[in-house]
Amino acid sequence: MASMAAMVTMGVAALFLSAAASSAMAAGLQMDFYSSTCPRVEEIVKDEMVEILRAAPTLAGPLLRLHFHDCFVRGCDGSVLLDSTPANTAEKDATPNLTLRGFGSVQRVKDRLEQACPGTVSCADILALMARDAVVLARGPSWPVALGRRDGRVSIANETNQLPPPTANFTRLVQMFAAKGLGVKDLVVLSGGHTLGTAHCNLFSDRLYNFTGANNLADVDPALDATYLARLRSRCQSLADNTTLNEMDPGSFLSFDASYYRLVAKRRGLFHSDAALLSDPATRAYVQRQATGLFADEFFRDFADSMVKMSTVDVLTGAQGEIRKKCYLVN
Ligand code: HEM
């Protein structure tokens, strides 16, 4: 007979699945979208992801971030993957996206799926699956990915102004998330994605050297812990440094856990946008609760929930868009 704990777990899983399924259905996506046209799609993506991360473990963060940057500009339609053409500068070549990585891995998975099921699986779906598997393989939570996204044919550099910049304050972050149908809870939960990966010095060095424009050693962000500031200055020695990489969650930047919140609570979040989560009572309460380290299960469930929401933002379905043959080119 199933134990009470197992029954409760099963009940929670069923509830979650139905919430995810209903949000996906509302967006026109389906859990079993490729069941007759490419039944092994999830297995193929997963197998490739195991190989990709075995060869390059640091790609887990970038592959999660690619999906976020895809969904925030024209919806999750693979527009972030398109190359510029002589007539058009694509999202990929806009400033916020110059630090993206992992495009080659996406194409590798696409090629593998074109062999198995030609012309069937969209690049937008591939990104959604790769982001999920990246988190799972980094020992984070899993979530069901409903499928059936179509690939867009348009990618415009200027539209990346819909991506929140690292300098954003709380009000701006809330507005930018709301514009994508995401709430304050999604903001604080998805910011937890910064448990993975690295950041270039120049994306936060204004906090170390030039916070108000005075550009001197006293011109620092008062919201940044002084000891941490000194450590960051020793790594990022000038405002101009745009090459040095910093682990966003030092010591565990390859594993998905709740330690991001411990850092933010200690005023050691790397970006102004991370620190901004302490400036609002509701997000501060979430950060402080997670900083105790006692509620990681809750963070994992929340992250899974918010990813399901984010991965359905403004998707193209049905006869909209196309199924690209190459992720970097319209057909
Ligand atoms: C809340 C607003 C956000 C801002 C302002 C922001 C900003 C940034 C910036 C500036 C970087 C550094 C890029 C680099 O220097 O290479 C970064 C990295 C990253 N972001 Fe965010 N981000 C936000 C939300 C998110 C969300 C929602 C996710 C995913 C759920 C995410 C996942 C990541 C990951 C995984 C990295 C590391 C990438 C790597 O290792 O190359 N971020 N973010």
TrEMBL record:
<feature type="binding site">
    <location>
        <position position="70"/>
    </location>
    <ligand>
        <name>Ca(2+) 1</name>
    </ligand>
</feature>
<feature type="binding site">
    <location>
        <position position="75"/>
    </location>
    <ligand>
        <name>Ca(2+) 1</name>
    </ligand>
</feature>
<protein>
    <recommendedName>
        <fullName>Peroxidase</fullName>
        <ecNumber>1.11.1.7</ecNumber>
    </recommendedName>
</protein>
<keyword id="KW-0732">Signal</keyword>
<comment type="similarity">
    <text>Belongs to the peroxidase family. Classical plant (class III) peroxidase subfamily.</text>
</comment>
<dbReference type="GO" id="GO:0009505">
    <property type="term" value="C:plant-type cell wall"/>
</dbReference>
<feature type="disulfide bond">
    <location>
        <begin position="71"/>
        <end position="76"/>
    </location>
</feature>
<keyword id="KW-0964">Secreted</keyword>
<dbReference type="Pfam" id="PF00141">
    <property type="entry name" value="peroxidase"/>
</dbReference>
<keyword id="KW-0376">Hydrogen peroxide</keyword>
<dbReference type="GO" id="GO:0004601">
    <property type="term" value="F:peroxidase activity"/>
</dbReference>
<dbReference type="GO" id="GO:0042744">
    <property type="term" value="P:hydrogen peroxide catabolic process"/>
</dbReference>
<feature type="disulfide bond">
    <location>
        <begin position="123"/>
        <end position="327"/>
    </location>
</feature>
<feature type="active site" description="Proton acceptor">
    <location>
        <position position="69"/>
    </location>
</feature>
<dbReference type="GO" id="GO:0006979">
    <property type="term" value="P:response to oxidative stress"/>
</dbReference>
<feature type="binding site">
    <location>
        <position position="249"/>
    </location>
    <ligand>
        <name>Ca(2+) 2</name>
    </ligand>
</feature>
<dbReference type="InterPro" id="IPR002016">
    <property type="entry name" value="Haem_peroxidase"/>
</dbReference>
<feature type="disulfide bond">
    <location>
        <begin position="38"/>
        <end position="117"/>
    </location>
</feature>
<dbReference type="GO" id="GO:0020037">
    <property type="term" value="F:heme binding"/>
</dbReference>
<dbReference type="InterPro" id="IPR033905">
    <property type="entry name" value="Secretory_peroxidase"/>
</dbReference>
<feature type="binding site">
    <location>
        <position position="77"/>
    </location>
    <ligand>
        <name>Ca(2+) 1</name>
    </ligand>
</feature>
<feature type="binding site">
    <location>
        <position position="257"/>
    </location>
    <ligand>
        <name>Ca(2+) 2</name>
    </ligand>
</feature>
<feature type="binding site">
    <location>
        <position position="73"/>
    </location>
    <ligand>
        <name>Ca(2+) 1</name>
    </ligand>
</feature>
<feature type="site" description="Transition state stabilizer">
    <location>
        <position position="65"/>
    </location>
</feature>
<dbReference type="InterPro" id="IPR019793">
    <property type="entry name" value="Peroxidases_heam-ligand_BS"/>
</dbReference>
<keyword id="KW-0560">Oxidoreductase</keyword>
<feature type="binding site">
    <location>
        <position position="195"/>
    </location>
    <ligand>
        <name>Ca(2+) 2</name>
    </ligand>
</feature>
<comment type="function">
    <text>Removal of H(2)O(2), oxidation of toxic reductants, biosynthesis and degradation of lignin, suberization, auxin catabolism, response to environmental stresses such as wounding, pathogen attack and oxidative stress. These functions might be dependent on each isozyme/isoform in each plant tissue.</text>
</comment>
<keyword id="KW-1015">Disulfide bond</keyword>
<keyword id="KW-0408">Iron</keyword>
<keyword id="KW-0325">Glycoprotein</keyword>
<dbReference type="InterPro" id="IPR010255">
    <property type="entry name" value="Haem_peroxidase_sf"/>
</dbReference>
<dbReference type="InterPro" id="IPR000823">
    <property type="entry name" value="Peroxidase_pln"/>
</dbReference>
<feature type="disulfide bond">
    <location>
        <begin position="201"/>
        <end position="236"/>
    </location>
</feature>
<dbReference type="GO" id="GO:0005576">
    <property type="term" value="C:extracellular region"/>
</dbReference>
<feature type="binding site">
    <location>
        <position position="79"/>
    </location>
    <ligand>
        <name>Ca(2+) 1</name>
    </ligand>
</feature>
<keyword id="KW-0479">Metal-binding</keyword>
<feature type="signal peptide">
    <location>
        <begin position="1"/>
        <end position="26"/>
    </location>
</feature>
<feature type="binding site">
    <location>
        <position position="91"/>
    </location>
    <ligand>
        <name>Ca(2+) 1</name>
    </ligand>
</feature>
<keyword id="KW-0106">Calcium</keyword>
<feature type="binding site" description="axial binding residue">
    <location>
        <position position="194"/>
    </location>
    <ligand>
        <name>heme b</name>
    </ligand>
</feature>
<dbReference type="InterPro" id="IPR019794">
    <property type="entry name" value="Peroxidases_AS"/>
</dbReference>
